[in-house]
Known about the structure:
flat, mainly alpha, single chain
Amino acid sequence: MSLTRKDVENIAHLARLAITDAEMPEYVDRLSKILNLVEQLDAADTASVEPMAHPLKDQVQRMRVDEVVDSDRHEKYQRNAAKVEAGLYLVPKVIE
């Protein structure tokens, strides 16, 4: 499928892109090539291919051990706060 200059201008308008007249031929050419590639992929016979729900079907994915490695540092962080009470940051009221 080959795009026209008008097609690319419409796409650029919808995408809110400012494409100059000098850039337009390059965009027409590249977008047409992309659509041609999609047409080639669409032409591939996939009738015998079973859809996959997960790429690692029937395979085991190695995972790391789920361990807590971070310590509780809220007291350290709250030392820098202007006001703290009962472990909570106190901030000025901004909505009445």
